[in-house]
Design a protein that fits this description.
about 40% helix; about 400 residues; 6-stranded mixed beta sheet
């Protein structure tokens, strides 16, 4: 009998299955007012949206993209030195602050919750710095209370979505005149979801079968099925010394409330680093070895939590990182380059980035990789791996290459 899956592994498996299967997924920056959401959004995306010191400075969501840091892409760019260099991008949405009672409409909450419904993953920004000059919506710093507030509102919103979905199914059964009934799977699934949400437990932390997950994806757009990356906004001093009294408590809370990744960062530090003309001197002045910007980790973690991966095309004209959903087939990946390429797909010539770097000998050629037996020809059923370097052979509508 196989060993029982741990809670963590089961949650990771569920997150990978919940939600949309697309290549253009988005992370939304969520949290209470005045915790640093818009400032973080500006730093991630090089934008200049309002980030004022008062609640609800952001009303309509702002959306932009940020390049995904990738040492593999950098290596290919340095090697080929092509005139066109295009990295992978992560789409990020800055969503207005939520407050207690948002699910009942407080603070324009229902509109803001619908904005969270529209994204595919969440950067949950929580404030852990003390600053009397920066207003806190509850007048005091208590990250655990703030985490409870946001999760409570998300669960209440999902509970309302669930009740609407059940009512819609029951109405359809009534209108059918007895031609069909609610399936046992649907009844069991919705009962279990209601029990979780009424306890302020996110749906993603439950144990779900594949048919149940497919039903959830089909019938309702739930917020608490989305992956969450928790971002603890510290003071510059705390970030540099890598200590804050709240971090261990926040980590424990996350593990007992559905799980998720925790990344400490500091808007204050990041703004100073961003504005510094000599960034190495800025880091040296911090007086601590190994200190670095947390933004690359935030971006790459959000990207991976959405189950997005990269494949590369490289040549004299262009080096490019393409984004596909994890599990995409070779024809689906070809369609990302051009919609017709998936239909006209013949084969994919593939080398992993690791094999290419090991065997290319510093040459922008696949000759040594082929000689080492690390260059493969793959067909329509091939599942693209993160870091693949691919050359697609595409036919024409008339059947010729």
């Amino acid at each position: 009998m196989p060993p029982k899956k741990s809670e963590k592994s089961r949650e990771e498996e569920n997150v990978a299955k919940f939600g949309r299967v697309k290549n253009n997924l988005r992370m939304g920056v969520v949290g209470l007012p005045n915790v640093g959401k818009s400032s973080l959004f500006n730093l991630l995306t090089n934008q200049n949206v309002d980030a004022a010191n008062f609640p609800f400075c952001t009303i309509d969501p702002n959306e932009a993209r940020c390049a995904v840091p990738d040492a593999r892409y950098d290596y290919l760019c340095d090697l080929w030195k092509s005139p066109s260099l295009v990295p992978a991008y992560l789409m990020v949405t800055d969503i207005a602050g939520l407050i207690k009672g948002a699910s009942e409409g407080a603070g324009l909450g229902n509109a803001f919750l619908s904005h969270i419904q529209a994204v595919d993953g969440i950067f949950h920004c929580v404030r852990i710095f003390e600053d009397n000059d920066v207003i806190h919506v509850d007048d005091s710093i208590d990250p655990i209370r703030d985490l409870e507030t946001i999760q409570g509102e998300l669960c209440k919103k999902d509970l309302a979505i669930l009740k609407q979905a059940v009512a819609a199914e029951e109405l359809a059964v009534k209108r059918s005149g007895g031609k069909f009934k609610l399936s046992p799977t649907f009844i069991g699934m919705t009962t279990k979801m209601q029990e979780l949400l009424e306890k302020n437990i996110p749906v993603r932390s439950g144990e779900w079968s594949t048919p149940e997950i497919e039903l959830i994806n089909e019938k309702m757009s739930l917020i608490t099925t989305k992956p969450i990356v928790y971002l603890a906004n510290m003071s510059k001093a705390d970030f540099i010394r890598k200590k804050n009294k709240w971090l261990a408590k926040i980590h424990a809370w996350i593990q007992s409330h559905g799980g998720g990744v925790l990344i400490p960062f500091s808007v204050e530090f990041e703004q100073g680093y961003d504005q510094a003309e000599d960034k190495e001197a800025f880091l040296k002045d911090c007086g601590v070895e190994g200190i670095a910007s947390a933004l690359p980790k935030i971006i790459t973690t959000g990207y991976s939590q959405l189950n997005l991966v990269n494949f590369f095309t490289a040549g004299e004209k262009e080096v490019r990182a393409w984004t596909v959903y994890g599990g995409a087939s070779a024809p689906e990946a070809a369609s990302v380059i051009h919609s017709d390429f998936g239909k006209l797909f013949i084969k994919a010539e593939v080398a992993s980035y690791a094999d290419f770097k090991e065997h290319c000998g510093g040459q922008k050629s696949m000759a040594n990789v082929k000689a080492a037996g690390k260059y493969r020809v793959e067909g329509k059923t091939y599942v693209v791996k993160d870091g693949d370097i691919i050359y697609f052979q595409i036919g024409t509508a008339g059947g010729k290459k």
